[in-house]
Amino acid sequence: MKTTSQKNIIRILVTCFILITFSSCKKFLAVNPDNRIRPQSVEDYQAILTGALPQAFHLFTELYTDNYRYYDYTDFNNANIQSWLKPIYLWSDEYISNSGITPEGGWRKYYNSIYVANVVLEGLATASGSEKHKSSLRGEALLVRAYCHFMLVNIFAKHYNEATAATDLGIPYALATEKVSNTHYKRDAVKVVYNLIEKDALEGLSLIKDELFDKPKFHFSTTSANAFLSRFYLFKGDYKTSLEYSERVFTKNSTVRDLFKDYDTYMATGLYTEFAMRYTTVEQSNILLMNHTLEWNSFGRSGMYANEYRSTFSSADLRGRLYTFTSNQTPNYIVRKFRSQTPSDGQQYSNVSLFVVEEVMYNAAEAAVRKENPDMAYAIDKLNAILIKRLRPYTALKVADFATPEALLTKIIDEKNRELCYEGYRWFDIKRFNIPVSHWTENGVKTLAPNDLRRVFQIPVPELTANPLMEPNPR
Question: Which of 6, 25, 29, 224 has a 20 to 30 A CA-CA distance from 411?
Fold first, then answer.
């Protein structure tokens, strides 16, 4: 949906690009005598899309999970941050709007990126420049459009179920920019959305050229596109195809991050901030796609803490000590995967991964045990490839440790959360497997039971208000 902010974003991006490009040209205003600023070349459109590449707009979903517990540290918590986060933590639709770290913010920002992708797709045909670059940029724009719709449908609609997907309410799939102001949009069915995502993603993958990117980890490369399709087909329940795309990733990159090196370099020497600052950088070979993201996870006084989750890690598992942190001066455990790099606007931003090798390994392990002929040995090999760089002392998993594929699947999902906790992955597995979640408050324990309607985030109120055709999710 093209809200006012979506209409403004392209003007801002294009204006910024033109100002930078023509700031030294005295006659730049004459380029468009009708006073419109229009991109001309493929480089112009590349700059526009680069400025709108998706960030981890979904991080708010962590609040719905079992990774956090609320503590009423009256003299310590920050009331403002808590007022943003606590309603979401309690699975309420009535959170503070106009914040970038809420479901409404995620909806708006994903559709902003989609709108810019469509601007690029519509303008490339008449742009000047290399045909190879134009083709690759078209591929990247298609992947951006596909990925953003994928995140939206998995947040604001039911999980894909082949038996009901044709009638389950999805989200509107925006295939073009709005040509008539205040156009209203209906929700496409989940199956329609998935079909369009698949079409866009496959075409996009066939077009992108990795050699054109100066900083490929900030763009959809062939490897990160294959990682996306690994996740897409896993969520769709096509385990054979998910496994195929996972293997394509491993052909190019199967590097698991060495947490022993991280622990010995940072934890043992007390360089905690340095670890957080370097957790997500282009130098980390396991990272396939990343972006600078507005986040709250590293805020130490949010009221949402990792105390209980930290205690579930075994003493041999270095991740429990590396991923969360406390000190004698603070009564809480906070997330150490991020450390805010606060810019002039006063907000908190960190580099956050969107795809990493480890996620693809968990995708492959899950697909291997859920496909028609389960391959438990393959799945365990993928788990061990990660655990051998996580456990001191290391004890390898064996097929004999698991009586059934279902028991191994439980282990896979648990290990996936231990590895990727607080990065925005957990909620989607809780939703896919209908896992109950209990949250503590000062008023007792609240539970999100299996099949609770609140497992689907509500369409944001501003969208429901502005668009009479937009159906709300049942409550």
Answer: 224
Q: What is the pLDDT of residue 75?
A: 86
pLDDT computed for residue 339 by the predictor: 79
Q: Which residues have C-beta within 8 Å of that of residue 59, sequence separation ≥ 6?
A: 101, 293, 295, 296, 297, 352, 423, 424
What is the secondary structure of 195-260 as a DSSP string? HHHHHHHHHHHHH--GGG-SSGGGS--HHHHHHHHHHHHHHHT-HHHHHHHHHHHHHH--PPP-HH
* Cα–Cα distance, 237 to 358 (Å, whole number): 20
* C-beta of residue 296 within 8 angstroms of C-beta of residue 81: yes
Side chain identity at 130, as an amino acid letter? S
Contacts of 361 (CB under 8 A, 6+ apart): 246, 256, 382, 383, 385, 386
Rounded CA gap, 334 and 275, in Å?
14
Angle value at C-alpha 76, between 73 and 79, nearest 5 degrees? 85
C-beta of residue 298 within 8 angstroms of C-beta of residue 335: yes
Tokens of residue 299, six digits: 């805020």
Q: How many residues does the chain have?
A: 475
Report the amino acid identity of residue 101. I
Q: Residue 362's closest CA among 238, 218, 184, 242?
A: 242
Percent of the chain at pLDDT > 70 equals 90
Continuous H helices in 37-76:
42-50
Average pLDDT, the chain: 90
Structure confidence at residue 210 (pLDDT):
96
Residue 71: the pLDDT is: 92
DSSP 343: -
Residue closest to 457 by CA, chosen among 171, 187, 156, 160 = 156
Q: State the DSSP string of 399-433.
A: GGG-SSHHHHHHHHHHHHHHHHTTSS-HHHHHHHT
What residues form DSSP beta bridges with 441? 444
Query: Strand, helix or coil at 87?
Result: helix
The answer to whether the peptide bond before residue 393 is cis (omega within 30 degrees of 0) is yes
User: What pLDDT, in 10s, does the model give residues 46-101?
Assistant: 999 999 999 999 999 999 999 999 999 888 899 999 999 999 999 999 999 888 89
Question: Is the separation of the CB atoms in 71 and 23 below 8 Å?
Answer: no
Are 309 and 68 spatial neighbours (Cβ–Cβ below 8 Å)?
A: yes
Burial of residue 411 (CB within 10 Å: 0-12, 13-18, 19+) is: middle
| pLDDT at residue 428 in the model | 98
Q: What are phi and psi of 296, to 5 degrees?
A: -120, -10
Residue with tokens 């199967």: 254
CA nearest to 376, candidates 346, 394, 402: 402
Burial of 129 (0-12, 13-18, 19+ CB in 10 A): middle
Q: Residue written as tokens 């986040």?
A: 295
